[in-house]
Amino acid sequence: MTDTSTNVTPSRYQGELLIAALTDRAHRLPSDAKAATLDLMRRRQWIREHRADGRFLGTGTEPTGPTRFRLSHAGVRMAKRHQRINFAELHAAVVRSA
User: Exposed site from 40, 49, 55, 78, fewest CB < 10 Å?
Assistant: First the structure.
């Protein structure tokens, strides 16, 4: 894993995708995610591309059919971190308003 992938804060849209994938049983990203965002998240090693049968699509491998993006281990950690940060911000806002 690159140092960049752990020290970067996801954008709001990336965070939404990470949390959506975290709630999916197979950690799949929504199929309507923007290509540019997927490319950036792949470079940060938060996601990996898999074949329709679930097997990892390795680097330099040509897909023979449809593929899906799933969270990598680094992506799961980032999604959980982002979820904790969102929860803490929400909790702080509730406490301030009380």
Answer: 55
